Every structure is written in structure tokens, then in C-alpha cells.
Amino acid sequence: MNSTRTLRFSTPALVTLLVGALAACGVESGRSSASPDGQKVSCPWKKDSSVTGKIRLGWQASPTPDLVVKDRGWLEACMPEANIEWSKFASGADVVQAFGAKSIDLALIGSSPTTIALSKPLQLPIKVVWVQEVIGTAESLIARDSSVTQVKDLKGRTVAVPFGSTAHFSLLQALSAAKVTPDKDVKLVNLAPDAILAAWQGKQIDAAWIWNPVQEQLVAKGGKRIHSSADTAEAGKPTFDLSAATSELVSDNPAFMTQWATAQDAAVRLIKDKPQDAADSMSIQMGSSAKEVAAQFDGYTYLTAAEQARPEYLGGKLALDLIMTADFLLSQGSIDALDQKASYRSAVDPAPAKTVG
Fold first, then answer.
1. Half-sphere exposure of 348 toward its Cβ, with a 13 Å CA cutoff?
2. Distance CA 64, CA 108 (A)
3. What is Dmax (Cα atoms) for the chain?
4. Which of 12, 115, 207, 333 is least enclosed, having the fewest CB within 10 Å?
5. First CA to last CA across the chain, in angstroms?
6. CA–CA separation, 74 vs 56, rounded Å?
7. Cα(239)–Cα(241) distance, rounded to whole angstroms?
8. Range of the domain at 150
9. Which of 234, 259, 274 is the last residue of a domain?
């Protein structure tokens, strides 16, 4: 286990990390426009055959609209001349590394790793183009000992979290608010979700800030939920699952971005209007039951294109949230320095959402 408190990217170290990220991601490619049961998929709206070439998309196994889009084959059906390649990633940190290696064009990534990607020394040329979810109780602090009932009770304990993730950011915020100092008062260890479950079973950690399905597995093994990202959001420190794209993709492929945003918006509406159908699609991609997936929906807020194009999100405040996140990560030593505030503002692009909304 790595007991280093914060995630840092130096330029030489990044090269090594990029190799690992590329080796770790699973790739699915081709022009398949068939549904999981083998039926031919029709584009639910007007298709666009002008989009050509390979588009490399990164996804993660969490209940996002992205998984509905992937499972239903909408992009492949609506852009039949494009080669859509999907790569699975374990965390936002891996996605940052893949963007740095120029091995993906658009991917799911949390607001904290997005901020790291935009800050020094990386300053990657990416644009935030979608809010997949506003994170609430879906990311929570789970404690083993029943005597731990609030964040300040973590003093003297070992807490696991995937470094560089939105969960890591929320944990650091909660510790700061409770006046609990990492390294001095509590030991933080950097573990991937599956490693957190193994460490919990081996009684190597006392608590973890993590998402599902590991979160529910820890609760099932006697853990207790004592704080969540909904609490840190209420305290003015929200976190998000976002979709970011390379600046090149956004500027050079507006037709693709319109089709992609249309598909994302349709997926959000399916979650809102027919949650069971959405859960069925997500469960296939996540390897969980539809019942387990549907139970996770309450832990997130899903936004239509029109909703997220508003000033509260892509239309303005999200850029301020990224700047706030950067300020905090700098204070924690997670980044070397902030970029210009204008850079964070220009990195948020509401145009695809506005086009659809």
C-alpha cells in the first residue's frame, strides 16, 4: 500500500505512468451497431454519415448515462461511417494519463482529476463538455468500528481512497473541515476500489471513502456510512463526474459532438423517465444486477442537456467549482501550481449541451 498522502504528477513520472495506463485499459473497437441481444440498432434520431475516422472513447463502470449510450450502440448506429472505439478505465487518474499520452479523444473523468489535468505541470488541452452526474451519497466514507460516528473520530486510523479521484477530494475536504490533519492525525493510503475491498477483508484499513459497488460491499460486511459527498457538496465543495474531450476533437468534429451530446441527453431522459430500462443497460456493462444498479441512482443527480447548459453548471458555475478545487488541491500539495483562472473558464465548453438543449 502506498501511504503517500496526495497524488502528484511530475513530468518525468508522467511518462512512466502513461505506459501503465495504456496497459491497464481494455479496448473494444469496431463499427458494431447491434444491441446486446444481437438485434440491429436503428438510430433514434437523424443519423449523420459525414462523421468518419476513429473516435476513441473512455468509460468507467459506474452508473452514468455514458453506459446507456455504450450499451445501446447509439453512436455506432447514428454515425455509421465512424469507427467508435471504447476503452475501459479504472479511475480518473488513469484517464488523465491517457489524455496525456494522446490515446483517447473523449472520456468520463471526475472533477478532481479534471482539475489536475488542467493545472500545472500537466495543463492538458481538454474541454469539459458534459456533466454525467452531480455526486451525492454515491461516494461515501464507510467506517469499520462502530465507535467511529463522525469524521473527527478517524484520528489514529488508516483510511483508504483512490488518490486523485473525486472521492479523494471529498475526503480531504471533510478532514479539513473536521480539523483532522493527514499524515499527522490519520494515515491515508492510495488503493484502487478492488484493492480497498481486499484490504477491508484483511483488516488492513479502518475506513474508506469509495463508490459502488465496493461501497455497498463494505456496508454488507459490517461497515457504517458516516459521511458522503452530499455532505461536502452541502458545505460548498461539490464534486462531479464529467465528460472531457480533447480540444482538437471539439474544434475539428462538431458533427460528432452534436451526435454524442444527443445520445447523452437521450440516456439522461431514459434514466429519468424509464429508470428500469436504463438500469438494465447499465447492468450489462457494469456486471451487476439491474436491481443493484437502480438502487444507486438516488446517490447522483442526472442533468438533461438543457439543465446542464444553465449558469449553475456548464454555463458558468462549474468553472468556478474547478477553480475552487484547484485552490484546495494546491493547498494539499496535489498540484504544483494553478493555471490562469481564465484557462479553467475556457476549459468548460457548454456548446454541445446548448446545441441539443
1. 24
2. 9
3. 61
4. 12
5. 45
6. 15
7. 7
8. 139-234
9. 234
